[in-house]
Structure formats: C-alpha cells, structure tokens
C-alpha cells in the first residue's frame, strides 16, 4: 500500500513491530511461548493456546447461509462466554490481554485475529496472511461452536455452516490442537484431577509439544503414542478428535504426519481463512505486508514563527549498521527540495519470532528548519544516497493544520485551550478535535468536537491563522481532524491541554 493510510499504518504496526524499539507489546506477552497471564511460564496453560482457541470460538458462530456471526469479537460478551460451548477462562484472558492493542484503526476483532497470528508465528508456526478491517459486534451472536460430545455428523454440519469442507475440518482441528489441551475445571468429565504440581489447571495436552506449532498432533496419532484427551480419553463419546481425524480413513491426518511441509502450508491457509471469516457486509483490507520504508509518528507543531517537524522512519529487513547513512528530504509548496544531514539511529525492532528485523532513525526540529510559508508537501529518504520516495509519489504529509504551541492550560480549576494553526489559502471546510473513547459495548470510537472559525483572524505568523477551542477535561486526549476538499484528515499526534504552559 501507499503511505500514508492511517488504518493500514496502524494495523501494520501491530502486525510487524513486535519486539524491540516501538514494539506494540503483543509478542512480549507470549515470550516464552510457555507464558501464561495468570501464573507465569510452565503452568501447563499458555496464552498462545488461549489466543488461538479464542479466535476459533469467535469465528465458529459464522453462518454461511445468512452471513451472520464470524470474527467480530462477539466472544467478548459475557453471555457468549457463559455458554457451555465456551467453557474455560481463556476467552476473557485473551480479550483482556488485547486491550492495549485496540484503537480507532484496530478493532477488537482485528486484535483477536492478530493475537492468533502472533501466537502461531512466534511459537514455531508459518507466516499467516493478515487482513484488517473487521468490525466489532454490538451484541452476542447465535451459538455455534462444536462440543466434544456431539456426533461426527453434527461436527461436519457445523464446519459446513462455518464454510469448511469435511477435509478442511480435519485440517483446522489438527492445526488448532497442536497447541494447548483440555482443562479439568472446564471439562471434568473428560479430564480428571491430574495430581501434577506443574499443571495449575490440570490440563491434559493434545500433543507432547503443546506450546509449539508442529505436526506432533498428527505423528503421535498415527504412531499410536498420543495421549490426547480428545483421542484416547476414557469416554469414547467425547473423543471428538479421534472421530474427526479418522472420518476419511485417516488420509488427511496421515498426510500431515508424513509431511511437516504439507501440515504447515495447509494450516497457514486454513488459519488465514478462519480469521477472514467475517459477517456479511464487512470488507477486509488487502493482505498487509510490511512497508520497506515507513515513516512513523510524523508530527508538525507550529511554534510561533517556526514550523517544527519531527518523526521516525523504519527501514524493514535491515540490521543495525553504523555505516548506514539515512537522510530525510522534503519538498515544499514552492517546488524546492531540502535535505537533512544523517539522521540519528534510534534502535532496532523485530517480528515473526525474530525472523525479520528493522532499524529506526529519528528526525526532529533540531536538524530541520522549516519556513512556514514554504511548508512541507512530502517527504522522501536517502539511504546511503539512494532515493526512497515510494516510486516517485513521495510520502505525502499534511501541513494544512497542526497543533500550535500557544495552546495553554489554566491550573485552578483545571481548564485550557487547544490552538490549531491553519494554513492560509487552504479551504478547510471543517476543523475539529477528535477525542478517542469507547461506546457502551467497548468499541473504540472517535467523538468529534467542531472548532468554530475565529470571528476575526488571529495570525500565528504570516502563513497560518490560529483557531482555538476551550476545554475543561485535563485527562482527555485529542487528535486534530480537518475536512479539506471533501476529504477528512487526522493528525496521528494527540494532546492534552495540561502538557502546555500556563495561559
Ligand atoms: C469439533 C471441533 C472442536 C472441538 C470439539 C474442540 C474441543 C476443544 C476442547 C474441549 C478444548 C479444551 C478447552 C479447555 O479446557 O479450556 C479445546 C482446546 C483448544 N482448542 Fe479446540 N475444539 C475443536 C476445534 C478447534 C479448532 C478448529 C481450533 C483452532 C483452529 C481449536 C483450537 C483449540 C486450542 C488452541 C485449544 C487449547 C486451549 C488451551 O489450552 O487453553 N479447536 N478444544
């Protein structure tokens, strides 16, 4: 995709900035893969397993014939979690852990899909194609998750309703059950008390490598060494994995046991399809791939007569190299191009279990001197002298409106003013503050507060005019939005009035 795209930029960040500098923090929660939110590593439970099961159970309500259900984060509703088909506490664990990842561009359902992907990829699994754009349900879906005691025919019908053939059913179950196991508390009729001090919840695992993605679930089944409670459980009625794996005469599961590659590539496809199963009407984005050069946190501030620009740039698939010279170029509204000196190195990040690494550089007002009248139209970068400008497009930035450092606070009682500098000559049809909040069912929303144009123009400098808004909530965080030529733009930077000087 082409930068900037606020939604794709945000989703790409969660997907690919997993560890190290600017990391979103998702991967750290399952580092190591034995990590468990309530009790630390090596408890017999794992967050990775919970995250994958949560995604399946959120999706499993899908009804292909009417387009209802699917990945829409309806699993977060207590009413769904209390159903027998959702026994266990892994769903709540997952939803809580994902809270920090959600924002106006990353829905709760997207965060659940990302959780499953990060768990699979970081714990030995293949890369999974990720699309974003799921929307969050406002209420629970109809029930629809298979239960172990149901018949094979019922399981086949349930997977058909979810959009999967009988062969794909075998695949999806074998792919999911490479992680985790069955807890005594949730399924006392399947797993008894284990009397094992290393297993806090008495979990009987599906295979011997229960925190790692691999085909042991299939090899152990074929070799007869499996101890899975859903294959060799004492009560044959609840041996659903046995019924499912043997439903085609063991053909599919044998192909997984024989070839780790077949298993891995089948799972990569099936997991992606599972996560992309969304209610009718929801349009997912393209598959998100990492941008080779990605500006980040790009922010303008109008500081009296000076326009300040700061930000970061990430170079993908690169390791730290002191000899690398990264420079920023910007073109202005007068058609001139300017070049900075070498940018400062910030750090490295990695993703996909360390498979990819990236390096980060910073630019800020100490090295960039902007003339407000000339402004900035777009950015590009020189990497060891080689121009990176998105194939000639440049990295477009919006300098028509920005926070002004004349914003200020009144201490007692707390109130304040947000000032926005608006470029003269630009037809800004609406200017507003954007307050990030959630609706009554926890969905991220943006509340827009219109700023009235000044009755008589207040000049920030010859090129910009100040629009102001008085506010009273010292904790509220505001971005700035503007409508220009029928298009809405938002700043990525957000501000509280208390960060400014006293009025
Ligand atoms: C007929 C279909 C299925 C049945 C009957 C079934 C049944 C179960 C049961 C009874 C548990 C134990 C849960 C607990 O004790 O907390 C479980 C765990 C799990 N299931 Fe399934 N499952 C099915 C399909 C799937 C699929 C398609 C996936 C994913 C693609 C999946 C992923 C998982 C995972 C990762 C766990 C481990 C959770 C943990 O250890 O915390 N399951 N399943």
TrEMBL record:
<dbReference type="Pfam" id="PF00141">
    <property type="entry name" value="peroxidase"/>
</dbReference>
<dbReference type="GO" id="GO:0042744">
    <property type="term" value="P:hydrogen peroxide catabolic process"/>
</dbReference>
<dbReference type="GO" id="GO:0020037">
    <property type="term" value="F:heme binding"/>
</dbReference>
<feature type="domain" description="Plant heme peroxidase family profile">
    <location>
        <begin position="106"/>
        <end position="314"/>
    </location>
</feature>
<dbReference type="GO" id="GO:0000302">
    <property type="term" value="P:response to reactive oxygen species"/>
</dbReference>
<keyword id="KW-0408">Iron</keyword>
<dbReference type="GO" id="GO:0034599">
    <property type="term" value="P:cellular response to oxidative stress"/>
</dbReference>
<keyword id="KW-0575">Peroxidase</keyword>
<comment type="similarity">
    <text>Belongs to the peroxidase family. Cytochrome c peroxidase subfamily.</text>
</comment>
<dbReference type="InterPro" id="IPR002016">
    <property type="entry name" value="Haem_peroxidase"/>
</dbReference>
<dbReference type="GO" id="GO:0046872">
    <property type="term" value="F:metal ion binding"/>
</dbReference>
<keyword id="KW-0732">Signal</keyword>
<keyword id="KW-0479">Metal-binding</keyword>
<keyword id="KW-0349">Heme</keyword>
<protein>
    <recommendedName>
        <fullName>Peroxidase</fullName>
        <ecNumber>1.11.1.-</ecNumber>
    </recommendedName>
</protein>
<dbReference type="InterPro" id="IPR044831">
    <property type="entry name" value="Ccp1-like"/>
</dbReference>
<keyword id="KW-0560">Oxidoreductase</keyword>
<comment type="function">
    <text>Destroys radicals which are normally produced within the cells and which are toxic to biological systems.</text>
</comment>
<dbReference type="GO" id="GO:0004601">
    <property type="term" value="F:peroxidase activity"/>
</dbReference>
<dbReference type="InterPro" id="IPR002207">
    <property type="entry name" value="Peroxidase_I"/>
</dbReference>
<dbReference type="InterPro" id="IPR010255">
    <property type="entry name" value="Haem_peroxidase_sf"/>
</dbReference>
